[in-house]
Specification:
about 500 residues, alpha/beta, five-stranded mixed sheet, 23 helices, globular, binds flavin mononucleotide, binds iron/sulfur cluster
């Protein structure tokens, strides 16, 4: 009998290692023929540790499972959830990027191939570089790190740049609040990211790749390092990628933990061993990136989506989605919700459906007040904006952004002036200090919100002015987008920015 237990760090945090060990020990004591297989997470975090038992009909889920439940599990007496694939959360999704996550052993390359892995790379090897780039362009894939820039167009710039050496840099800094998709795929299906990076290398003519991975993800670092080693031994990486005669090597580099090091030019400085300060653009990293050479900088999910685009074809991917947001998006649901986790769906699902139906509303049972979408630089979306379909342009039209697709849900007890202050404070702490509107503006922002709290006349107007200056004058999106959470809180909840006596009237 095969029993699957996640090794994802969210599952480990609630005892998955102990449960896996208890199953193995109890089964051995009873002389049962049980193999415990560690997998990634299915993304249903409220069910972790989610244990799955293989049956003729499919895998039956049990969760959350505690060590005390293990004897009943092995006796067949523990109440199950039914077939995992049949659960509402799973049935409602379109899993393309995350098709194998939670299903396979992340470090079993044969299992990876048996589930469609390497098919995209094999197809890419038979194509000319320009054909690979065109395929990615046709798929409509856009950068999942936040800016939503078309991946194929970025690759085309690097392909066209003449250079003796080019690089692929994967941005795995994942600094946005409420996001964990990069971590989940690196822990649950690392070969997908490796395959995506090799395809990117073949497409643009790069022979070296780096994954810039945040130090706060020790499990992901460990799994990625092991996966790179296994891929090298199997010839997926190295001087002759799968016998193609083309070379691609890669390394994992660990960041020291600054939010701004997720910004691509700051990341490149950090990768070069310098201080993580933002570089002025131009030159674009695509032309002068790592060590001054043409460099593709892409988010983990952008790169990990490339294999399925090549495997199933650009049109298959582009057929999902809405407007200029093509394909699927792994949405990460966090904060005050009943059901938090990762939900991959085609672009277009209204925000309200995600919050009220998929996430099941708040855990506290109180009404939802606002959802911050897109990390610390994203807008607070009030209920009035809940019919906004999940898409880049659609959120932009609401004065927001989808960023890395993280939702953090707040109930009616949230203090929105306090959240606006926090946004400014975060910017002040994380600012790289290169430009004045951000370095000084964020500090003044905190002070101005305190003046609003003290009831000072004209301070709200001053805050609006300051936000305009930061938006228009900042060098990068840290200072440039901090006004989004601040202004959205002010616009949607103006009463919370009034002096106490006026607000009470
Ligand atoms: C302050 C700041 C932090 C960022 N953090 C991240 C991050 O953690 N991960 C990421 O992929 N992109 C992050 N970005 C976006 C990157 O600069 C860049 O757009 C992205 O890595 C490009 O890859 P993509 O086109 O695949 O999205 C950040 C941007 C800014 C301004
Ligand atoms: S906006 Fe802030 S983080 Fe960005 S370059 Fe300016 S000082 Fe640095």
């Amino acid at each position: 009998m095969k029993i699957y237990v996640p090794l994802d760090s969210a599952a480990k945090a609630v005892g998955a290692d102990d449960v896996a060990e208890a199953i193995a020990k109890d089964a051995a004591a009873r002389d049962l023929d049980v193999t415990v297989i560690r997998t990634g997470s299915r993304g249903m975090i409220w069910l972790e540790p989610l244990v799955e038992v293989e049956t003729d009909a499919g895998r039956v889920g049990y969760g959350p499972v505690a060590v005390e439940d293990v004897p009943a599990l092995l006796d067949g007496k523990l109440a199950g959830l039914g077939l995992v694939e049949g659960l509402d959360w799973m049935k409602g999704q379109t899993r393309l990027t995350f098709q194998r996550c939670g299903v396979i052993d992340p470090l079993d390359l044969a299992d990876y191939e048996a589930h469609g892995g390497l098919a995209g790379l094999r197809r890419a090897i038979a194509m000319a570089p320009q054909e690979i780039v065109d395929e990615v362009t046709t798929s409509g894939l856009r950068g999942r790190g936040g800016a939503g820039f078309p991946t194929g167009i970025k690759w085309n710039t690097v392909l066209a740049a003449p250079a003796s050496q080019k690089y692929i840099v994967c941005n795995a800094d994942e600094g946005d609040s409420g996001t964990f998709a990069d971590r989940m795929i690196m822990e649950g299906d690392p070969f997908t990211l490796i395959e995506g990076m090799v395809i990117a290398g073949l497409a643009v003519g790069a022979t070296q790749g780096y994954v810039y991975l945040r130090s706060e993800y020790p499990d992901a670092i460990d799994i990625m390092e092991k996966a790179v080693d296994l891929a090298r031994r199997a010839g997926v990486l190295g001087a002759d990628v799968l016998g193609s005669g083309r070379a691609f090597e890669m390394e994992i580099r660990v960041g020291a933990g600054a939010y701004v090091c997720g910004e691509e030019t700051s990341l490149l400085n950090s990768l070069e061993g310098k201080r993580g300060v933002v570089r002025s653009k131009p030159p674009l990293p695509a032309l002068e990136g790592f060590l001054g050479k043409p460099t593709v900088v892409n988010n983990v999910i952008s790169l990990a989506t490339v294999p399925v685009v090549l495997e199933k074809g650009a049109q298959h991917y582009a057929d999902f989605g809405l407007g200029r947001s093509r394909g699927t998006i792994p949405i990460q649901i966090a904060g005050n919700v009943k059901y938090g986790g990762l939900y991959e769906t085609a672009f277009g699902m209204p925000l309200g459906q995600l919050v009220d139906e998929v996430a099941g509303g708040t855990l506290s049972g109180r009404p939802v007040k606002a959802v911050q979408v897109g990390g610390p630089l994203g807008a607070y979306m009030p209920r009035a904006a809940f019919d906004t379909p999940f898409g880049y342009e659609e959120f932009d039209g609401q004065g927001g952004l989808i960023g890395h697709a993280g939702l953090v849900v707040f109930d009616d007890s949230a203090d929105m002036r306090g959240m606006a202050r926090f946004a400014m404070e975060f910017c002040a702490v994380e600012s790289c200090g290169k430009c004045t509107p951000c370095r000084i503006g964020a500090v003044r922002g905190v002070e101005t919100i305190d003046r609003i709290a003290a009831g000072e006349a004209g301070a709200v107007e001053l805050l609006e002015d300051l936000c305009e200056t930061m938006k228009d004058g900042s060098l990068c999106a840290l200072g440039g987008f901090t006004p989004y959470p601040v202004m959205s809180a002010l616009r949607a909840f103006p009463e919370e920015f009034l002096p106490a006596e006026e607000a009470a009237e």
